[in-house]
Amino acid sequence: MDVDQTPELAAQREAHPELGELIDQLQKYSNMKLFHQLTNTLFQYLSSPPFAAREPNAAKDLLAFFNGFIKPLESKLDKVRWVQILTIVCKPQAADSALEIIAPYEAAVAGQRDAKYLWQALKAEKQTLAGQLEEAKEALESLGKQIEEAYEVQALIQSQFHKTNALLWKHLGRSQEFYKSSILYLAFTPLMSIPEEERPKLAFEIGVAALVAEEEFNFGELLQQELLQSLDGSQYAWSKDLLQAFGEGKFEMYDAALSKTRTQIDAVPELKNAETSVLRPKMCALALMELAFRKPKKQRRLSFEEIAQHCRVELKEVEFLVMKAMFADLIHGKIDEVAQLVILTWVKPRILDNARINLMREHMDTWSAQTGLLLETLEEMTPELLVS
Known about the structure:
Layout: H1 7-15, H2 20-32, H3 35-46, H4 58-70, H5 79-90, H6 95-102, H7 106-109, H8 113-129, H9 133-149, H10 155-172, H11 175-187, H12 199-212, H13 220-223, H14 239-248, H15 251-260, H16 262-266, H17 269-294, E1 301-303, H18 304-311, H19 318-327, E2 331-336, E3 341-347, H20 354-387
Antiparallel strand pairs: 1-3, 2-3
């Protein structure tokens, strides 16, 4: 291709001859000042294997290319795209170095709202990785308020914000908050934008957080995430059995999962330490919810003995289990201590799978049949009522 060669791209061609076609395009669009096309090609180039964060020389190569070729283009590129480029360049860098790289551009993005939000999230991410947790927490709290009050914030910004929030909670050891932020991150993030090699570990970490978070009982939302499919065939595949047991609220599945994955569970400190204090009590509560859900609405009068047997607790522990479930807003109702009964009026809605949808259909069919019988009885009684 007959184009003037810049020294920076000539150096890239020598270092990465396999990327010659992309380098030619970069040179062409740079010479012609076609900055939109140049930006798109830059993203292609920066996502190439030599610049992957897992490569040993990626940090050095990216920084050299950034300083030599990309940095002079800063004023020509879209501000949001510019911060995205900064994100790629900073990914393999040490956190302190990354903070130094992005610092000069705070003023440059201040006038463009979404670019400013994205830059703030990037800074908070690097602060978290650098151990500046209080500074990152304060920055993310401020950013969260700005995003909440703003109008039509891009999904890209929401994704980066919740991803960084999750990272902070992970470093602070706050499982509940990490799980909630991760679910929000997945809601705003196409699966294809998460590097394939990172997906199994991310799915595993989110799953473990859901298991050990004392206040988390909604596993249906997690189990329906497309990300969880990445566990299949990975070193974390065993965790799916445990998650499905909690999703179903069935002790049989829980016991089988524990037996099958005992070695793996013992190798994960969070799970091992939480088995008695969190996992089993949570399983008891989920089993109670499942028992109540499967009862017809007019028959939600559960004896202490039935609850004890189904939820694998001692008879004397039933009242405490029910009160705890009520306090967690999993069920509503009242306890009749004299009759040893629990009368339930409400069960927390759960995400429905095919089995639960079929069960609800059976309940509706029963209700329809009962309504039909009542209508027939009223029709038969109508002449007598009119005569009298």
